Amino acid sequence: MLLNRDDLIKKAREAKEFAYSPYSNFKVGAAILTENGEVFTGCNIENISYGATNCAERTAIFKAISDGNKSFKEIAISSSIAPEKPIFPCGICRQVLAEFNKDMLIHVDGDDKTYKLSELLPAPFDKNQMSNF
Ligand code: THU
C-alpha cells in the first residue's frame, strides 16, 4: 500500500495517544516511512530525571533501526497542539535523523509545506568532519 503525506500524519496523530508525558502534559507522535514502505511509529517517553526523556521522533527511528531498517524516506510529526500549531523536531532528533538520511522529508501536522531535513539542519555533524581525526 502506498502511503501519502496525510496517511503518515494520521499515523503520527494516532501514535501521540501513547505518549508518556506526565511532566509536560505534552503529547508528541511520529511516524517514519522506510525505503521499503514500512511505517514505524513513536511517542515521547518522559522520565522523572527529565534529561532521560526520549522524543517521539527518536522513539520511532530507534524502533525501526532495531527491527533491521536503515533507509528512511519520510517522517511525520504531530503534537497536542496540532493542527492549530505545528511543532518541529528538536535539534537532537534532527541530528539523529541526519545520520540516516540528510534529505529525509519532514511532514509537520498543521503545516502544509513539506520540509527537507537539510533545510532544518543545514550543517549536521557528519563523518567528513572527523576525517582528520
Ligand atoms: N518532544 C518530542 O517528543 N519531540 C519534539 O520534536 C519536541 C519535544 C517532547 C519531549 C517532551 O516529552 C515534550 O515534548 C516537551 O518538551
Name its key features:
about 130 residues, alpha+beta, Cytidine Deaminase, domain 2, 5-stranded mixed β-sheet, about 25% strand, binds tetrahydrodeoxyuridine
Overview of this protein structure:
There is one protein chain. The chain is α+β, with helices and mostly antiparallel strands and 133 residues long. The protein has one domain: Cytidine Deaminase, domain 2 (3-Layer(aba) Sandwich). The protein is 26% helix and 23% strand. It contains four helices and five strands. A five-stranded mixed beta sheet has the order 2-1-3-4-5. The longest helix has 12 residues. The radius of gyration is 14 Å and the shape is globular. The chain starts with a helix and ends in a 13-residue tail after the last helix. The model has no long low-confidence stretch (mean pLDDT 96). Bound molecules: tetrahydrodeoxyuridine. Tetrahydrodeoxyuridine binds next to helix 2.
